[in-house]
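Appendix C. Worked example: Diaminobutyrate--2-oxoglutarate transaminase
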Amino acid sequence: MASGAHGEARGVHEGILRRQSARESSARTYARALPIVPVRARGLTIEGADGRRYLDCLSGAGTLALGHNHPVVLEAIRKVLDSGAPLSVLDLATPVKDAFITELFRTLPPGLADRARVQFCGPAGTDAVEAALKLVRAATGRTGILAFTGAYHGMTAGALAVSGGARDLQAARLPYPQDYRCPFGVGGPRGAELAARWTESLLDDPRSGVPLPAGMILEPVQGEGGVIPAPDEWLRRMRQLTADRSIPLIADEIQTGVGRTGAFWAVGHSGITPDVMVMSKAIGGSLPLAVIVYRDDLDVWQPGAHAGTFRGNQLAMAAGTATLAHVRENGLAERAAGLGTRMLTQLDEFTGQFACVGEVRGRGLMIGVELVHPDGDTVSDDRPSAPTGQEPTSTPRPAAPELAEAVQRECLQRGLIVELGGRHAAVVRLLPPLTISDEQAAAVLDRLADAVAAVARRHEEHGPQRTRPQGPAQRAG
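Step 2, the predicted output written as structure tokens:
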């Protein structure tokens, strides 16, 4: 780009960012950490108004299973536009909706598709969570919900009540098993077993203070919680515990679904069939769409018991059908499993190369790298001592959100877009599209390694500059 044209583009870029800062609310989040102005995009690549190109490993927070502007998605949208079909039809039946439901049911876990009902909700995942909570309360006549520490299910009142940062007496919080910062100090199968026993005891102890709940909601892989995959055996225990007590199990597949974790739905890794599945993000093929799918015997709603104006987004259904079919027909979930394993193997080398990398974890193309203080004392994160005869599987150092933010900034300078998450916003997250090539994956890892090395080098040169870990509310501000 010629210098004059570059200067003009830079002026447009800065002007738009300046007006955004002046006019949009203080609740904006991604725009603070990623001061870019996307104008064109294809696949993994975004081009900004200033002419810079970026590899996008945010993917609309996991929305873009096929990346930006995939040809099959664009073709599906154009077909609807060119047909003259209505674009928004409330909950009326249409050929576009019929095709979407047919394709969606084709992908469901065994035992659910042949007895499923689907409810189209408002356009966002949090709307679907609200619908799922309302459904199980209506079906059981009970009110309480079991949820898990570190969870994230959305931003509306009910979704916040079952997310990790909320306080709500109707949502009982349970320990979510993890290895690196195990709440019981042991990690591994033993930690998962203790978490399951805790849940079982809470349900069966008449003095636990938790009455039989209307449902249990969980993420098969916690995303915003720091990319923490649930152990398969623990998920099977949760399925058995809930089934034995007639508690509907709600699987939040909003971010994990449509091949992201290496199975079409993340519950497939453990082989469980939930009673309710919450879906959004990738099912709309980049456009707003959210549904719940549930067992027919839970369908106790009266007409109008749950509604919403934007349930009939025909463009999103067409884009979603094309996306679901493309992922299924081209084995993209299986490819995500293989490529994700290779990427995790390479990223695991970071823990030996950089003292500021505490753990690398993930499943499929849902990957997290936790940053810690290399010169900090090991901590227990206020965990109880390990049981007698058991040694902790790890002694993690304090989370380092400021180092994670620095890595995110260094990545952006190198043309790589990543997200942050985790309990202390100290986890660098990768959510590339399932269509990422081997060469692109190598470029992503190279840029990330270079960014981490730069941050580690600066930390060594200037010493620790520690800040207090931030919670979700502080990060969003």
